[in-house]
Automatic annotation (TrEMBL):
GO terms for molecular function: DNA binding. It comes from Amycolatopsis cihanbeyliensis. Transmembrane segments: none annotated. InterPro entries: Cro/C1-type_HTH (IPR001387), DUF5753 (IPR043917), Lambda_DNA-bd_dom_sf (IPR010982). It comes from the Bacteria. Residues 289-302 have a biased composition (Basic and acidic residues). Residues 304-313 have a biased composition (Low complexity). Residues 289-313 are annotated as: Disordered. Residues 20-53 form the HTH cro/C1-type domain. Coiled coil: none annotated. Pfam families: DUF5753, HTH_31. This is Helix-turn-helix protein.
């Protein structure tokens, strides 16, 4: 692939391409069938679907109608995506509709060959256990139980990227505070720490602990990840409560890579991190075993009870 083709591809263009391909396949048309219908070359359809070039709004509209898409809201969404496909700064609001909320991040993670992330407050989504996920969603929203379970299943499915053949090379920097923050109680946290130790043993995954003593990492900035690709420039993803931000400008990505370099220098090394995770897992296990006597366990119980009491008022 030429350098120009790489520059022409953005996260937004690749998402548009994936959506076009999904809609075409749903219609039962092959790429050659669609090209013949539209009088296009098969390579034009292929380029649009791979996100190698910014497709015009007219081309996207014609493509979609030819595949039988007539829902105005979907047409408008995808045509707007085509209009903005060249932008390397993409604020993606979180939608109440689960597929819409996750589509962009799943695509970028699923096509990456390397993911390096930093999480100062909670365990990253790719590493969360089922019960940890469930407790987070229960705490963070007033959604009905069936909606929470749908989101739990979706996040667990997202983790398959780490288990597939030729999974991406992953390095996770986790701040000490994220691991000490009790989510769901000591039993949930013990299971989560044991799971982190298991993932750290996988050949393509590494977990590094950033101690409090390393500096103000836990209070300056937020969670982010830098994703690398074999055929595209890297993408930085910064998450917040309301939206996810995709950054692709080289200077923006370079800034986050500089932060990762500092984290690599200041975090515990791989062996020390494993020892620390094992120690904290043992601490949570002891807290659960002596739940009524352990002062940290009592604080965890109180932290769990207070939100429940507020909800009952």
């Amino acid at each position: 692939m030429t350098a120009k083709a790489k520059r022409d591809s953005t996260a937004r263009a690749r998402e548009l391409g994936a959506e076009l391909r999904r809609i075409r396949q749903r219609s039962g048309l092959s790429g050659h069938d669609l090209a013949r219908t539209l009088g296009w070359s098969p390579s034009k359809v292929s380029r649009m679907e791979s996100g190698q070039r910014g497709a015009s709004e007219v081309d996207v509209a014609v493509y979609l109608v030819s595949c039988g898409l007539v829902v105005r809201s979907e047409l408008n969404r995808l045509v707007t995506l085509a209009r903005e496909a060249d932008s390397r700064y993409w604020l993606r609001p979180h939608s109440r509709e689960l597929p819409e909320e996750l589509r962009s991040l799943i695509l970028q993670e699923g096509t990456a060959n390397a993911i390096t992330s930093y999480d100062p407050l909670i365990v990253p989504g790719l590493l969360q256990t089922e019960q940890y996920i469930r407790e987070l969603f229960r705490w963070g929203s007033n959604r009905p139980p069936e909606d929470i379970e749908l989101r739990v299943d979706a996040r667990l499915a997202r983790q398959h990227v780490l288990k597939r053949a030729r999974s991406p090379w992953c390095k996770f920097f986790l701040h000490e505070r994220a691991l000490r923050a009790v989510v769901g109680g000591p039993e949930v946290m013990h299971e989560q720490l044991v799971s982190l130790l298991l993932v750290d043993s996988w050949p393509r995954c590494s977990i590094r602990v950033v101690p409090d003593a390393a500096g103000p990492y836990g209070i300056v900035g937020g969670a982010f990840k830098v994703m690398g690709y074999a055929e595209h420039p890297p993408v930085t993803y910064v998450d917040s409560w309301a939206a996810g931000l995709f950054l692709e400008e080289p200077e923006d990505v370079a800034m986050y890579r500089e932060i990762l370099a500092r984290l690599d220098r200041d975090a515990l090394d791989a062996g020390q991190s494993r020892e620390w995770l094992a120690w904290l897992a043992s601490e949570y296990d002891q807290m659960e075993a002596g739940r009524h006597d352990h002062p940290r366990a009592r604080r965890a119980d109180l932290a769990q009870e207070q939100p429940q009491q507020r909800q009952q008022r």
